[in-house]
Structure formats: structure tokens, C-alpha cells
Amino acid sequence: MRVPLSLLLRWCDPGLDPEAIASVLALTGTEVERVRRLGPESGEGFVVGRVIEATQHPDADRLRVCRVDVGEREPAGIVCGAPNVAAGQLVAVALPGAVMPGGTKIKKAKLRGVESAGMICSEAELDLGTGSDGILVLPDSIAEPGTPLAEAVPLGEVVLDLEITPNRPDCLGVYGVARELHAATGAPLADPPWAVDLGAGGPVEGAAVEVELPELCPRFTARVYEGVGPAETPIEIRSHLHAAGMRSISPIVDITNYVMLVVGEPMHAFDLDLVEGGALTIREAGADEIVTTLDGQSRTMLAGEVLISDAEGPTSIAGVMGGARSEVSESTSRVLLEAAVWDGPTIHDTSLRLALRSEASGRFEKGLAPVVTERAQAYASVLFEEVLGIRPQPGTIDISSAAASSPKITVGDGFVTGLLGHEIPPERLIGILERLGFDVEAGADAIEVVPPPDRLDVQRAVDVVEEVARIDGLDRIPSTLPAIASAGGLTAGQSARRRLADSMVAEGFFEIAGWSFASPGLPDALRLSADDPARNAVAIENPMSEEESRLRTTLLGSLLDSAARNAVRGAESIRLFELGHVYLPAGDDPADQRIRLGGVIHGTSRPASWREPSPPRADVFAGSAVVRSVLSGLKVEAALSRPESARPFLHPGRSAEVSIEGAAVGWVGELHPLVADHWALPGAVVFEIDVAPVLAAMPAVIAYRPLSAHPAVRQDLAVTVGVAQSAAELKAAAFEVGGPELESVEVFDVYSGEQVGEGRVSIGLRLSFRAADRTLTEEEASAARETITAALTERFGGEVRG
Amino acid sequence: EELERNLGGDSVDVTLPGDPASFPGGLHLLTSTMREIEDVFVGLGYSIVEGPEVETVFNNFDALNHDPHHPARSRTDTFYVADSVVLRTHTSPVQVRTMLDCPPPLKVIAPGRVYRRDDDATHTPQFHQIEGLAVGEEITLADLKGTLLTFAKAIFGDEREIRMRPHFFPFTEPSVEVDVSCFACHGGKRADGSRCSLCKGTAWIEILGAGMVDPNVFAAVADAQPGYDPAKVQGFAFGLGIERIAMLKHSVPDLRLLYDNDIRFLGQFG
Q1: What is the C-alpha end-to-end distance of chain A, expressed in Å?
Q2: Among residues A192, A194, A195, A176, which one has the least CA distance to residue A184?
Q3: Contact B220, B97 (CB under 8 A)
Q4: Is-contact A567 A676, C-beta < 8 A?
Q5: Is A510 close to B270, i.e. CB distance below 8 A?
Q6: Cβ neighbours of A137 (radius 10 Å)
Q7: Strands A208-211 and A279-284: what pairing?
Q8: Other CB atoms closer than 10 Å to residue B73's CB: what's the count?
Q9: ∠ CA A279-A282-A284, rounded to 5°
Q10: B176 at A interface, C-beta within 8 A
Q11: What angle do helix axes A251-263 and A371-383 make, rounded to 10 degrees?
């Protein structure tokens, strides 16, 4: 809400500069987004003047030469281009030396040969309004010529842009803000603008209202004004409205807007002669019912929305926008002035649906207190008399289903201190509440508090504590720590995940922050088959874009996108990982959220260096080494196997399934060339591992195994097998038959070529034997090796090479 | 002597890169920031709890005292995957889950990804928060202030002060926004007398929202966990944005850099 400071100070003036006022408000709960200055920085050189004479410029059709009384001995000669300038007018004059908003300094000048000593200003030039098609003509009685302009009009307004939190609709009017300022500073608070009411209750003649929906319209008030004649909105009201971001439209509309600005309650004025039957009904809209609003648009309503209608049909969308048919105009003579409150959510939904957000709907949607209707009527009656010189007709229509009184809240002694951890002395506490308009009654061991009728947000003792704490000043609250003794810490799984990420970093990977969102096109880019389960993704009903309309089922999308972006930017070696969530549909449950570790390698297997200027490109073995290494860091052994059917996005011959204790947990491999093409990452290696089974396989406590004091005996063997034969199976078989002393089996050589024949490969295994209780002999080791050799030749059709 | 002579002939340029060369690597700035914050609270005796990002409307809004028409529920603000299921808009639903799981007293933080339908220069539809929750019989607003002061000093430097400004959140009462004293200037002015661009001359930087847990939030879980009878316990909660903390602390000018994953950016942190 934009608050013109001069209007705020009318009710509470703490004698502080605007920034200090902003700070006081900010520290007591009313955020000030900005402090803006309108109009000239200084009032110096701006005076009220009277046009004594306005004659045609000899050499310019559009210019007049004016003699203007500016309170000095000699009138000032001023050339003016405004079409409306005329002798007798009281005007705003910028004399030489005055600095206009924007910084232009007024100087004596010759305009087409005629000396001009100043400028007669328009509203817009002074930032008092938007009117720029003519000069500002001041009311005759406002001041004598020569009076500083700032004494006659709010020149150089300061505007506070306030962010009112949704719980405080009472601050959507300037007086509510003044009450805050009063509570915070102790500066006196003037009587509210509704202290005087020129109208009265009782029946109203010639107008009637029926409320069919009391739950959506807790209170509806209306008064009738007759004999509306021509008038002009006073410059002060116009300029305040302008400063608050509202256009001056007509005296009646300006009055309603001014009431809204000051009281916080939007009003609506009907031309009573255009209300069919002189009666309004507040009722539910029929589905597809059409209302023509003030702006001339036809709006189609939904059932459940609220209309105001007369005998002929709808005249207004309640709380959102008035109708065109009964709009006040220059010819209006009888006005039905409405002040009502509406169900906030209904107004919010309707205004949002119709994209009709206004100062009024923005207030109504917060759920205004019913009491503001009578306040608005009272203040409006004063303004009608001031601006239009008329008083309301007898009576007030007042249909209310609202609860009459505010709750009485008991705040036990010690409750405030117990919640704040800080004691506020009782007299101070009571003083704060009273300045905020609360009725306070101190009892033996508690206080009884009744909030003012516009503070619907205060219902409970804890709400009262907030009031006291914020006005007392949160800076008074001391700093202590909770007296809860707890060890805290990371769970085993949480620390293991940290170690996993740290291991990836140690392997030379950068962690990325990928997107949880995925494109529905990703499965195609990954060549997933139509029935691939990874196509089954959680869909977002209202995504930012189609590209972000699914939740990811794999980390691969972000990894490849990020790698591709870096490659395009010239990165030669790219190693990225993410330890993040994927989201799998889970029937009735929201989603099966799993942590995965994914990575991509693109480039060489080792950094180029002075010793190795051209290292080999990273291939599947670079990926498998990383996977094994980071899992073994958690003491989890990963087994890799040739896939029975390759994943469609991986190279079928250069990819592996990763498993732990026989259960599949992920995959590693080179991208399928078609997929690699899509991201322009030829030969890229990728992997993705489910983390939960890794954590589950981690030993909780590692038990010590005795170190043998006896040396190991090493023996090598080489066996020739078919190329489809996996080394892992050879190893497994070796362990199976090798006896308890077989400590390790490592592949030390892989050879294929002429000597071993087409379709065959020779695999060299280094066997290491060790006994816990004695030194093994070469003979024992050789015997074991022979057993292993026999098993390998028998099971895998192997031939032993010499 | 001969040995020494021979060794003298065997001299290498030790300024050459070591061998084998290794690839650089690093944690993402968001991760390292998250860990840094987690470690502060772990040091204060907090446990780390986690919750799902695809969350029920009940946990994300209802149980957190959002009225049925709260604007944050709207489809313009929140991602829906079903009528009663959303992408969580804050880490606060983990408060609810944790209280349902564990009786008081407790001190927990809940880091994680959250989602809002915002995408502009200062918002990404996905971002990260850390939620904090302490519940006991005598937890006070002063405890909240002391906790956040400790946090601010640990993250932004020992000379930091904090201030609380009253605010409004549905699930805390009283609610506050918390500012940390600017670490790039003195009283809003840089050493050369110019206005500080980081705090915009205010000397304070907003870093998080917090407050005393609203009794209605306790009431929402008290049926299942009677220990949370709102008449018996009180507590504080806070929520802070990791991106904001990381950007402030490391002078990252553009939120997009955090999600662009350019290795020239990634390589600066870790």
C-alpha cells in the first residue's frame, strides 16, 4: 500500500524524518519497501500566483503572455502554453531558481522574443496528479498570491510503499498505520476520521437491499445522497490519491477512493436512479450469467460467485468491480453509497479468475472486519459535505450477520515472559496494548484483553504476545540457547552419503545441481522402449513449461545436459556427478523418492601431462573403476556383469550392470552412439547407482581380521577362453576351488591375437596364497593352482597357455 | 662423495606438475553451503531429518495452519501432481513429519529441495532450504534469537549481529524475519564512503524467516503424538534459503550460475 506521508502525519506525527518513520514501522511489523519522494526536492521558488492578465503572444498562436501576481511589488511576466490559462485564475508558479522534479532549473528566458520570468505549472509537472493537458487551477480561497506553494498543496510528497502482511487488513487504511506509529512511538493519535458521522441509523426511503448470502456478505451498509451537483475534488484529495497510485476520476469516485485509502474499506457508489426498482439484491451468480463491468467488458460468471443485482439483473460483481449500468456519471443526482465486507477467499478467487485485481479486491480478499463499513460511511458523510456540500438522506441500510463483539482473551501472568524468554513490565505491557486500541483489564494473576473490532487476527493469548513483543521491540529480546541437551549428529546413512560425494570429488568429479524436472522427450532421447518403466514418471499438472513437466526418473538428463553445455563452451575434460533424488510413481502414495549417484565422464581417462601428453580416452573401464572405487570407500564391493540385455541408451558391448550381493543396483557404460550424438558427447561414459542398497550393504561395525605373519606365495596362470567369457566368472570359479589359502586373484594380462586364435582371449591371473598359521610352500601353492587350472579348463573350455 | 657427485647430476625440475596428474573436483557450492550450515547445527546438538519432496497438501499446508484459501495453495504458486499432492513449497512439512515420528523434546534441521512456480532473475522453480525446529516445554523466542545469532556468526563471521523484525507466517506466532548485519560495509557505508550495494545502505541483510511454532501446528499433530499438547510445549522454527546464503557469502551475482553447472564456476568452490 502506498501511504502519502502528509496524510499519515495528519493523525500521528512523531516528529521524525521519513526514513526514521520507515524504520519504526519496519521494526514493528510493517515492512517498508521503499520511501519515495514525489514532486520537487525543495519547495523553494514555488509560489501561489494569480493571473492578472493573459494576452495572445504576438508571434506564437499557442502561447499566451501572462502577468501574474506572485506577491511581489511587480507582477511577473510569464509566457504560458496551456490552453486553459485565463485571467483571474489562482495558479502554481515556479519562479526562476525553482528546480522542477527531474532537476530542470527554471530560468528567465525569452520565448519567441517575449521575456518569461517563470513557469505556470500543470499538476503533472508538480507530480501532484496526472493532469498535463493544462495548468493546475487552484481553488480561489486556497491562499494569497505569493504564499509558498507547499503551504497550499501537498508539494513534495513523501510516499511510503508498505508491504502489509496478510494478517493485518486493518493497516490497509492510513489510519490503521497511524495507530501502529502511535503504538510504536507514543506520539499522540488524533481522533479517527470516522469520529464524526453526519448520517444516522434508521430506515432509508427510496432504496432497499436484500442479502441472500449472509455467509459471503457478513455486512452490507448503504446510504443515500441526493442533490449531487457539479463540484471539483479538492487538490489535496487529488494529490493524495495520486501519491497513493490512484487516478482522480470524479468527485464521488474520488471520495470513495479516499475513504478506502484512509479507512481501508473500499466503497461503491451507485447512481440510484439507474438502479432498477431502487433495490439491490446480493445473490449467487447463475452459471454463465453475464455482467457488463465499469470498463465496458462483458464478464461471464461462475456459479458460487457473488453478484449485486437490481430488478433488471446484475449491476456489479461484488467486491471486484462495479457494473456499467448503474455507474455514477456527471449527470448523477442521487447516489446509493455502499460499504460492505465480503468473504475474502470468494473475492480472491473471482478477481483472480477474471484477472480483475484492484485496490478494492486486494483489500476485500484479506477478509475485512465488518466494523469498517460503518467507519467508511461516517468518513464518507464528512467528505460528501466537504466536497459536494450535501449530507446523507436520513437512515442507513445495515444488514449484518457478523458477530457483534471481539473475543475476550485471558493472558496469564508469566505467559508472555514464558514465551519470549524476556519480561516486559506489566505497566509497559498494558500501555502497549492500550495504544494499539485494546481494552485491557488487569486481574489478580492474568490480564483480560479485548482487541479492537478491526483486529480479527488477534484471537488467542499467543496473538497478544506477538502484539506486545513487536511493539516493545524485538531488539530487547535477549539471546539464549535452548536448554535441551541432545547429542545431535548425522545418521550413519547421512555421513555415508557425504563420504560418497567426497569420494567422487577425490576421483576428480565436479558435483552439479541438476533439475528435478525432466522433459517428456527425455525417454525418446535415451531410446527407451515404449514399455520401459523409466518412462513412467510423476507428471506435474501445472508445470512452468512442457520441458519441465515431469519429475526425473534418472539423473542422466541433467548430467548429459550439463556435460554438453560445458563441451560446447570448450571444456575438454568433463567429469560431473550428482547425488540426488529421482522420483518414481508409487501408486496411491505421492512418489517413491530415491537417492541415486550418477556421473558422466567425457574426455581422457587421465589428465594430459608433461609425462603423458596424450592419455587414452576414457572408456567404460574409467567408469567401472570409479564405481568400484567409491563404493569400496564405504566397504561395499560392487560386482559388475555383462548385461543380459543392454540398456537402450548404453553401448551394448561396453556397458555393465552393477550389483551388490547379487542384487542389481545400477549400471555403468559408454553411451550408445545414437544417444551420444543427441548430446554431441561421443564416447561419453555414464553411470547411475541406487544409493539405498549401498548404504544397506555397508558394514555397521567393521570387525578386525588378524594380520598373518606369514608371507604370501604368488603364482600366475594364463587361460584361453572364448571372448564372451567374463573374467569375473573365472575369478569366482578360482575362489570356489582354490581352497582357504587363496587370498586374492587379480587379472594381470588380457591378450587376444593370432596366437590365441579367432574368437578367443587369453586371460592371465595372478594368484596369491597365504595361510594364517604357517608359511606355505611353493608345492602347496602349485597344487592349488593346478586345481584351479583344471576347474577353469573344464568349466569354461579353457586352454592353459604355457 | 662419489654418491653425492652422482646425485648432483641427477637433478630434476621439481616445479613441473606432479605425477600422476589428477583431475580437479569439488562439491557444488549449494552442497558445501548446506554442509556448512548443517555442521553448525549439529554442533548445537541438532539432528538432521529429511522428508519427501512430493508431499501431501495436508503436510505442506493444512497441518501448517494455512487456511483453506491461502494464496500459496493456488496453482499459480504451487506445483500440483494431484489434487491433494504437491511438490513441497518449503521444508516445513518435515516439521510435521518429524513431530509425528518423535515425541518432544527435539531439535532438528531439515535440509532439502523445494519448489515454487516462480522463474525470473531472482527465482528458480526449484531451490533449497533448511528448516529448523526445536520443541520443548520452555523454548522461548530468546532461544530462537540466540540460536540464529550463533548461526549467523558461524556462517558470516564472529562480528555479526542479528536483528528480528516482526512478520507474518501462518505456522508461527509470533513470526519474525531475521536480518544479519552487513558484512560488506560498516553501517551501510563502504570504506570509501559510498553506499553499500549489498545491503543497499541499510546495514542489514534479510536472511531468513522464523518464529514461535503456532499452537495450531502442535494441535495438528497432538492427536497422534499427545506429547505435543499445545498447552504443554512450545518451540521455535526457522527456514532459510541455501541459495541466498551461498550467494551472499560468496558474492555470486546471479542465481542462474548455481544451476548452470559450468565447470569454470564449479571449480571455484568445493
Answers
A1: 92
A2: A176
A3: no
A4: no
A5: yes
A6: 22
A7: parallel
A8: 18
A9: 135
A10: yes
A11: 140
Residue B130: partners with Cβ closer than 8 Å, 6 or more residues away? B34, B37, B38, B91, B109, B110, B111, B239, B240, B242
The answer to whether the CB of A337 falls within 8 A of the CB of A253 is no
CA distances A358 to A322, A368, A372, A637, A718, Å, are: 11, 15, 18, 65, 85
Of A344, A477, A501, the CB nearest to B31: A501
- Report how far residue A528's alpha carbon sits from residue A553's, in angstroms, rounded to the nearest whole number: 12
Sign of torsion, CA A318 A321 A326 A327? positive
Distance CA A512, CA A599 (A): 10
Nearest CB to A516 within list B21, B76, B113: B113
Whether omega before B174 lies within 30 degrees of 0, making that bond cis, reads yes
- As a whole number of Å, the CA-based R_g of chain B is 23
Q: What strands lie across the sheet with A306-310, from one edge to the other?
A: A208-211, A279-284, A306-310, A313-317, A321-322
Assign 3-class secondary structure to A541-571: CCCCCHHHCEECCCCHHHHHHHHHHHHHCCC
Among B32, B38, B79, most A C-beta atoms within 10 A, so best to mutate, is B79
Show the cell assigned to A550.
515431469
**Cross-chain Cβ contact B266/A510 below 8 Å:** yes
Name the residue of chain B whose CA is nearest to A477's CA. Answer: B142
Report the candidate in A273, A261, A192, A227 with the shortest Cα–Cα distance to residue A12: A192
* pLDDT on residue A700: 87
A638 band by pLDDT with thresholds 50, 70 and 90:
very high
3-class secondary structure, A525: helix
Q: Which residue has the cell 514555488?
A: A46
How far CA A97 is from CA of A100, A265, A598, in Å, comes to: 9, 43, 71
- Bridge partners for B210 per DSSP: B176, B238
Give the separation between CA B56 and CA B93, rounded to whole angstroms.
Answer: 9
Q: How far is CA B93 from CA A152, B15, B56, B59, B122, in A?
A: 56, 55, 9, 5, 24
Tens of pLDDT, residue by residue over A728-757, are 899 999 999 999 999 999 999 999 888 888
Confidence of residue A300 (pLDDT cuts 50, 70, 90): very high
